[in-house]
Write a structure and sequence with these properties.
It is a single chain. By secondary structure, the protein is of the alpha+beta class. The chain folds into two domains: 199 residues, Cytochrome Bc1 Complex, Chain A, domain 1 (2-Layer Sandwich); 192 residues, Metalloenzyme, LuxS/M16 peptidase-like (Cytochrome Bc1 Complex, Chain A, domain 1, 2-Layer Sandwich), CATH 3.30.830. The protein is 40% helix and 17% strand. It contains 15 helices and 13 strands. A hairpin with a 3-residue loop joins strand 4 and strand 5. Helix 1 packs across helix 4, helix 8 packs across helix 14 and helix 9 runs antiparallel to helix 10. The protein is globular.
């Protein structure tokens, strides 16, 4: 499942598979879920009615490269553009940020390699008004100099914080090693200098192309019903030849070597290429492997690391992507040599079939964890938005409950099939990135500082 703030893909890829169009016919996702188009045959809307507290999560996703559509990558462009639209005040009314704040809600913008997500968590009685405000803001974007200035200030502040976070830094460094070109090679947030260099014209050009209804997925969950969708703005008219953006390819590095980078704290990252989202059985199996080995507190590797290195933190998951997916494992507070033997031993144990009783218990725990992670409106909306923008909405965990493709694939797993997937995708050496205080000290000494 998708759990990273930044998604990425790996080094040794299978042949590319076609990505499902965002304008494909709406799919049936269960009795509590409504699916439709946003305008004519363009865009996708998904709404799941949930019981509980009177809140709603609205997420507007766009398929667009984080570094822009030009030949030269512009790091931070997608994040700055999305934030500038939210901060810009139209001729009449409030900005989207002001509208969300006025109802006591929370607005967030998250950028991935080939998509952008704008999320609002609001009281249920304000959901219809915010759905309209959100789609008006992005489907007919208005950009102002003041809005861009406010957005740049906030994005620069986030970039400074991210630069001191070892988990973010090691993940970005892993991206850089996995890819030689393309948006997946670059972080969603660059440096303050890079952000300041982005022009108003750059932001406007990106927003006009990226934030179109053809590229959009509106995913809503909470104590709302399908009447909310009637409030959605259709935005600019969609021309007959204006198709949704296809995922922008990122070029994998042919032979990525281990790399060490200077940083104040010790950290390390590992990455393996995995199956694309279209290979549902293999992708689900990789989710199972990530849960079994790396899930915090319960995973085999997580427990082994906690016992040996109590101060270390671990983040491991399979990131489901159009093509390919990626198994990512990150640590802070330790070096690769500390944890590599534990990781290698755990992976080796999976390349032979697990004991049947142990496998059944692990699969039960895995299915429970998947369902436990799909309880809140934000989790549900995020789940459908991600799988829709990656091109396989019907496969989203929880679609059609236990009878959907995801749980069909989970229930079809066997110890032998898990071993086969582990051999296929996790036998080769991973990409390895090390953050080292010693390297920083040597670097400083070499420059005379």
């Amino acid at each position: 499942m998708k759990r990273l703030a930044l998604a990425f893909a790996g080094a040794s890829l299978a042949a590319a598979l076609p990505c499902a169009s965002l304008a494909a016919a709406p799919v049936a996702l269960g009795p509590r879920v409504t699916t439709s188009h946003l305008q004519g045959d363009a865009g996708t809307a998904v709404l799941q009615t949930a019981s509980g507290a009177p809140v709603a999560s609205l997420e507007l996703w766009f398929r667009a490269p984080s570094t822009g559509f030009g030949k030269e990558p512009v790091v931070s462009l997608a994040r700055l553009a999305a934030q500038a639209v939210a901060a810009s005040k139209p001729i009449v009314g409030d900005s989207l940020g002001e509208a969300v704040s006025a109802v006591g809600g929370k607005l967030a913008i998250t950028v991935y390699g080939d998509s952008v997500a704008v999320s609002a968590l609001v009281p249920a009685n304000a959901a219809t008004a915010i759905a309209k405000a959100m789609t008006v803001a992005y489907f007919s974007p208005v950009l102002t100099a003041d809005g861009l200035k406010a957005a740049a200030r906030d994005v620069e502040a986030d970039a400074v914080v991210a630069a001191y976070d070892p988990d973010v830094v090691v993940r970005n460094a892993t991206f850089e090693q996995l890819f030689s070109a393309g948006p997946q090679r670059y972080p969603a947030l660059g440096t303050v200098k890079e952000i300041a260099a982005i022009s108003f014209a750059d932001v406007q050009s990106f927003a006009t192309r990226a934030f179109r209804v053809q590229n959009a997925v509106l995913s809503v969950a909470g104590t709302v019903d399908a009447t909310l969708l009637a409030s959605v703005s259709s935005g600019r008219p969609a021309s007959a030849d204006a198709a949704a953006e296809a995922p922008v390819a990122s070029t994998p590095a042919t032979a990525p070597a281990p790399v060490t980078k200077p940083f104040d704290a010790a950290a390390c990252g590992f990455g393996w290429a995995g199956p694309p989202i279209a290979d549902e059985r293999a992708a689900t199996t990789m989710d199972f492997i990530a849960d079994y080995l790396f899930r915090s507190e319960t995973g085999v590797v997580a427990r082994a690391v906690a016992a040996k290195f109590p101060s270390a933190s671990l983040s491991g998951q399979f990131v489901t992507l159009n093509d390919p997916g990626v198994m990512y494992l990150g640590f802070s507070g330790v070096r690769p040599d500390d944890v590599r033997p534990l990781v290698d031993a755990a992976l080796a144990s999976l390349r032979a079939p697990l004991d049947p009783a142990r496998f059944e218990a692990a699969r039960d725990a895995f299915e429970y964890h998947i369902l436990a992670d799909l309880q809140t409106p934000s989790q549900i909306a995020d789940n459908f938005g991600w799988y829709a923008v990656e091109g396989n909405l019907a496969y989203a965990p929880g679609a059609n409950d236990a009878t959907g493709p995801y749980f069909v694939a989970a229930n079809a797993m066997t110890p032998a099939s898990v071993a086969e997937v582990a051999k296929r995708y996790l036998s080769g050496p991973p990409v390895v990135v090390t953050l080292s205080p010693e390297a920083k000290t040597k670097s400083a000494a070499g420059t005379g500082t």
